[in-house]
Write a sequence for this structure.
């Protein structure tokens, strides 16, 4: 029998998202993670024994315990499995997972990420990321660094940001995987209070609780298991880190985004945004959407973030991986009310760190029947 | 079997209180000592020619030790600024302004508070902090060797 799939290519076999809520009060974190991982395996007709590895992506500070993987490896399905952890973001976990599959050593894995944002004041936790001598006495967090970013952007104004946030809210309201909310209009967003100028409360989504699990397999595994049908091929992935110094050039250049995106597109053999049917952006603020469109020269008629991005659900640490899941669902034709027609290729772009110091871009392509 | 009757109030609160004693090191130590004399010192690499403020012991580009000290000017240019208008735990009561400023003679920008702004209209105050705006350094009356010994003013 002729192999159908390239052996070391990575494919998404299944995706499961925990129910999105502002605050999950009836489960401890371990239970959220177990429910999500178990459901992901059940959905593709596999069990934990089948796995040859598990990749975890989690943040100890946000989980409220050091070495959070000690307690959360088991509910992720990793008991006595080959397990490794990414700590920058959920989408960084996909980078790690992709390299594991592409190495040729691993063939069936579970990528699990989570964030129970509600257990502590989110921005107080983020404040711990300041170095202690020079920035902690002044005080930085995600909102404040995003305010610095928005203020340093060229060609963006508050009115445009309010319109973008309103459109994200409208898309999010159609997404059954999001937290049910009534979307705010652009005028209401423009009148919402400043958080850190020019960033207003309505320009950013609130953090929520959530978890995600992806079943990722190699082409070899698919060739050996012809009864299993992948949702999408992870055809390209790229990442980049920018300087920690938040000067004008760093804040306005989006150089990390450009590098991550161009690397992912080259990896996928694609040349430009016109090759993509959908782009899901983890827009932690409306300004991130505006800056991403400009930096990547995304055409005005491009379908961007039909899921509503983090405005639908925003389990902060894994929000980028949720955007990737939405891109996979688009390619698989399973995005439900937010499906953007026939989607052959979709990208997900995620950010992490103060003022998007880190960027990951992933490209998903349909798998011909 | 999970208890289906778990209540929303069922939480266990936890809090960490950990004291860290960070070693200041010679470079930061010299910087903080100089602040007491109302001087802002940066380090410089003769290899790359880059000057660093806050001072670094090494050059991030050349990966050689910074081998010079240079005194920063007491004026500079705003590279990025914001007025924090929301209340955050363990941060000053809002509104207050902060800015990354590249002081004269230095290649990198350093964050600090911007004082003396009329905050009665935050939008108007923000308009005075546009990138490229020149600011001055102002020291507190009794510098103690802390980064908050100085701030920026228009």
């Amino acid at each position: 029998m002729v192999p159908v799939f390239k052996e070391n290519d990575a494919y998404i076999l299944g995706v499961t998202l925990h129910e999105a809520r502002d605050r999950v009060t009836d489960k401890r974190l371990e239970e959220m993670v177990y429910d999500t991982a178990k459901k992901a395996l059940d959905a593709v007709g596999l069990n934990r024994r089948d796995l040859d590895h598990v990749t975890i992506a989690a943040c100890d500070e946000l989980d409220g315990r050091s070495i959070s993987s000690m307690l959360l490896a088991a509910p992720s399905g990793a008991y006595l499995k080959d397990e490794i952890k990414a700590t920058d973001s959920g989408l960084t976990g996909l980078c790690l997972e992709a390299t594991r599959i592409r190495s040729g050593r691993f063939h069936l894995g579970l990528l699990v990420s989570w964030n129970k944002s509600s257990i502590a004041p989110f921005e107080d936790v983020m404040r711990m990321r300041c170095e202690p001598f020079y920035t902690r006495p002044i005080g930085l967090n995600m909102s404040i660094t995003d305010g610095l970013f928005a203020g340093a952007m060229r060609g963006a104004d508050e009115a445009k940001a309010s319109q973008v946030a309103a459109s994200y809210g409208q898309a999010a309201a159609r997404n059954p995987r999001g937290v049910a909310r009534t979307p705010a209009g652009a005028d209401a967003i423009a009148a919402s209070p400043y958080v850190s100028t020019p960033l207003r409360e309505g320009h950013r989504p609130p953090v929520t609780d959530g978890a995600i699990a992806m079943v990722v397999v190699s082409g070899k595994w698919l060739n050996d298991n012809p009864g299993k049908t992948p949702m999408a091929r992870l055809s390209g992935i790229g990442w980049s880190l920018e300087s920690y110094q938040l000067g004008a050039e760093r804040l306005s250049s989006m150089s990390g985004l450009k590098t991550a995106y161009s690397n992912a597109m080259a990896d996928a053999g694609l040349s430009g945004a016109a090759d993509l049917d959908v782009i899901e952006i983890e827009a932690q603020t409306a300004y991130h959407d505006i800056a991403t469109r400009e930096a990547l020269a995304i055409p005005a008629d491009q379908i961007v973030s039909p899921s509503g991005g983090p405005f639908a659900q925003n389990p902060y640490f894994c929000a980028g991986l949720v955007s990737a899941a939405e891109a996979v669902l688009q390619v698989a034709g399973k995005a439900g009310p937010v499906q953007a027609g026939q989607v052959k290729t979709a990208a997900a772009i995620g950010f992490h760190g103060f003022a998007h110091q880190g960027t990951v871009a992933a490209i998903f392509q349909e798998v011909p029947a | 079997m999970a208890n289906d009757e778990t209540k929303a109030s069922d939480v266990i609160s936890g809090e960490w209180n950990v004291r860290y004693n960070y070693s200041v090191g010679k470079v930061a130590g010299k910087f903080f000592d100089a602040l007491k004399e109302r001087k802002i010192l940066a380090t410089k690499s003769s290899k790359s020619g880059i000057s660093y403020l806050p001072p670094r012991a090494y050059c991030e580009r050349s990966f050689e030790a910074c081998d010079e000290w240079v005194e920063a000017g007491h004026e500079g240019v705003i590279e990025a600024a914001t007025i924090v208008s929301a209340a955050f735990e363990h941060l000053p009561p809002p509104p207050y302004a902060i800015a990354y400023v590249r002081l004269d003679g230095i290649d990198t920008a350093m964050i600090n508070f911007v004082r003396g702004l009329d905050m009665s209209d935050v939008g108007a105050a923000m308009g005075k902090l546009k990138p490229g705006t020149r600011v001055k350094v102002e020291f507190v009356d009794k510098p103690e060797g802390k980064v908050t010994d100085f701030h920026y003013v228009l």
